[in-house]
Specification:
The complex is a heterodimer of chains A (183) and B (182). Chain A is of the alpha+beta class. Chain A has two domains: 79 residues, Sulfate adenylyltransferase (Roll); 82 residues, Sulfate adenylyltransferase (Roll). In chain A, 25% of the residues lie in helices and 28% in strands. A five-stranded antiparallel β-sheet of chain A has the order 1-2-3-4-5. Chain B has 182 residues and is an alpha+beta fold. In chain B, β3 and β4 form a beta hairpin. The chains are: A alpha+beta (183), B alpha+beta (182). The structure holds zinc ion. The site of zinc ion has 8 residues of chain B, from loops. Chain A: It is found in: Cytoplasm. Chain A: This is Translation machinery-associated protein 20. Chain A: Pfam families: Pre-PUA, PUA. Chain A: Keywords: Cytoplasm.
Chain lengths: 183, 182
């Protein structure tokens, strides 16, 4: 999603009204309920909350100078900066060490990278994730997430089919969103 | 405070555990050791040897990482060489007998933000300043008024802040039709 994005692709910047801020905060919490306990710390009552509209209808939300989440359609997607602050709020999968460099080059994630010994998918039946779930991607022996993606098949299918693309890349360390500087 | 603060590498911007994939690991390691010695020890051990796994897949990975590193280093070197071989041209153009403009070109190689610089100049010299697209010389900054000396000074400081001290800044005076090297 952020293969190409630079200052030139920014159309407008505006401050977000506090009533809209409150709505965004509750939308975030409704999507990721665990964020509730930290939402006021992430987005304090008094903060510089900006909406940055970009090419391709991508909207970035920046809080005190840091892009915390973005949206293209209705869904709000966290940025890696936000994920790193509070990873437990988001559904997570893990790739093996061999897959890291492909992920960092922006490739979609292949199923075997998730099902091998170094990978990790939800184990319990109740924790299985549906197709189209936005997930954060961790890596073998690493503490922090390196990417955010969308499941192209359910985690059950990833395990049983174990072929082809399992996760569509949205945002990764080193992509244009990660490196974006606007000021 | 349940919010985590993650350290980001000043060199490659990744969390340090991912520095090995950035292709800049040598410089990353130096930075980490200087700025976060505890993290350095945690990641690279006392001697600075990352991972002692001898499995063949791991070896393969290490090899491809090293390749990436070399590639990145070569790229950095090429870029530096390109910068060292480039120059900034400050041209003074006479409009009328009393009025002139200053055109500055050759800045993009040095990763200087021309839009920002033109804003700075506009307020610094209290004058009009714009970025004009030119296919021949590349993008130029056009400053209204005879401020070539001041602009040159400012650009030189900008360059030295980037660690580029021996870059040529060439002065051209359009009326004289003579190059003045500085
Ligand atoms: Zn680094």
């Amino acid at each position: 999603m952020f293969k190409k994005l630079s200052k030139e692709d920014v159309h407008s910047r505006s401050n977000v009204k506090s009533s809209v801020q409150r709505a965004m905060k509750s939308k975030l919490v409704s999507q990721y309920p665990k964020l509730e306990e930290v939402i006021d710390e992430l987005i304090p009552k008094k903060c510089l909350f900006e909406l940055i509209k970009c090419e391709d209808k991508i909207q970035l939300y920046r809080v005190n100078g840091e892009i915390l989440f973005f949206q293209k359609f209705d869904e709000l997607i966290p940025s890696l900066r936000l994920v790193h602050k509070f990873p437990e709020a988001f559904p997570t999968v893990q790739v093996d060490r061999g897959a890291i460099k492909f992920v960092l080059s922006g490739a979609n994630i292949m199923c075997p990278g998730l099902t091998s010994a170094g990978g990790k998918l939800p184990e319990k039946k109740d924790d299985e994730l549906d197709k189209d779930t936005t997930v954060i991607i961790n890596a073998e022996n690493k503490e922090n997430a390196l990417a955010i993606g969308k499941l192209l098949m359910s985690t059950e299918d990833i395990k049983s089919i174990n072929k082809g693309h399992g996760v569509e890349m949205i945002h990764h360390l080193g992509d244009c969103l990660w490196n974006l500087s606007i000021d | 405070m349940p919010l985590k603060t993650v350290v980001y590498c000043d060199i490659c911007t990744f969390p340090p555990e991912y520095c090995e994939f950035s292709g800049k690991i040598k410089r990353c390691k130096v930075w980490l050791q200087e700025n976060h010695p505890d993290l350095y020890t945690k990641l690279y051990g006392e001697e600075g040897s990352a991972g002692t796994s001898t499995a063949t897949t791991e070896n393969k990975l290490e090899k491809s990482l090293r390749k990436l590193e070399i590639k990145q280093e070569n790229r950095d070197q090429r870029e530096l060489a390109k910068k060292m071989g480039s120059k900034v041209v400050i041209k003074r153009l006479e409009r009328t007998k009393r009025k002139c403009v200053v055109a500055i070109s050759g800045l993009e190689v040095f990763e200087i933000d021309m839009k920002k610089l033109s804003k700075t100049f506009a307020s610094k010299f209290a004058t009009g300043c714009s970025v004009s697209k030119s296919a021949v010389t590349g993008d130029e900054i056009i400053v209204q008024g005879d401020v070539a000396d001041e602009a040159e000074q400012y650009i030189k400081t900008l360059l030295s802040e980037k660690g580029l001290t021996s870059i040529k800044v060439e002065r051209v005076d359009d009326k004289m039709k003579k190059k003045v090297k500085t």
